Amino acid sequence: MKLSEPIAGIERGPAIVGSRVELQLLTTLRCNLKCSYCSLGVGEVLGSRRKVSYSLEALDAFIAKHLSEHEIYVTFYGGEPTLNLGFITAVMERYPAFRFQLQTNGTLLARLPDQVLAKLSNILVSIDGGERVTDGYRGRGIYRRVVKNIDAVRDRVGGTLTARVTWSDEDTTFEELDELTECFDYVYFQFVAQDGAYSQQAVAKKREVLSRLIDKFFSGKMLYPVIPIMGTVRNKVLPSRAQELYAGLTQCRVSTHILNVMPDGRIYPCPDMMYMPEMLQGDVVGNWLKRSPLQPHPNMPCDSCSAFSFCRRNCMKNLYLAYVKGADGYRRNVVEPICDLVRFLGEEVDRHDPHTWFASAPLPVRNTVTNCEAYEYVEIMP
Ligand code: SF4
Ligand code: SF4
Q1: pLDDT at residue 339 in the model
Q2: What atom of ligand 1 comes closest to residue 311's alpha carbon?
Q3: Domains in the chain: boundaries
């Protein structure tokens, strides 16, 4: 079997692959910020629906029909999901055995009641790096407000706090990302999918910051909690972990077991592609579900890529737009530079001999690198 071959029969297989499923419930499409690169702005998805219009009885019936055999975890997503606290509370009360995660811009976090915070296994807080960059994209004072809110809720959150950094600015520094590892349990970064962000100079700067992050990861006995580096090391040292839970497909789960449920009940695999009719995968109201349409395609170059064993098709949205829809400018200006950075990340990790590092790491560090629950909540690869 070629490394890139999905598990046999996946094309005809069940709608959900594996035993777990993430229900990413969009509680609203409203947001209290106006981030300049927001992906929901594409196709005018953002702001188009304020409240959830399907009933919880419809959600019950959908779960009973399609997900009754699965371990379910819910991510509350938006817009800004905390703007519809009533829905969050109702879902938590109705499904007390589920695991819950919140994806938020962090600005309203301190207002959440204790009983909601206590039930969250993870909170993903969107941030753009340091204060200058975050305020530049999100508005003045946002960085400090978010950091203050993190301090205010830390002791009340049941699980972990993860910074979700969209790495957009070429001047984001190592120090800014490093500082986030002090306030959060984990830092996840993803390379922004934006034309114009990958000039030669911008790529060179990102490579330099990546090198320093990776140097720091390997420099001590403590875990340096940066998810894309942890995940890359895990995938290199324990290659089977790169495949389990995703049937060898992308680690952002869009090909296997994440369902983005729009406030009106329509279901899509990727939250950035909810404006594309061909991505419709199901409907809570109509109570139907099919396998994700976002699957590997022969035009995608991953089969012959040196990073494939650990990357496993980083972002299916990018690959689909660039190689299936034929968006050549997007391929040249966004997808190829990101893929180069992913390959660079792998090479830098190799330079530090991850197998030897892992063999001598303290057991708790090995356990977290191997099994970190946050891997289930983020895309792992940047
Ligand atoms: S780096 Fe790009 S081409 Fe290579 S496996 Fe990842 S997504 Fe595919
Ligand atoms: S990484 Fe996955 S979920 Fe994120 S934009 Fe790409 S395809 Fe969508």
Answers
A1: 98
A2: 6
A3: 22-376
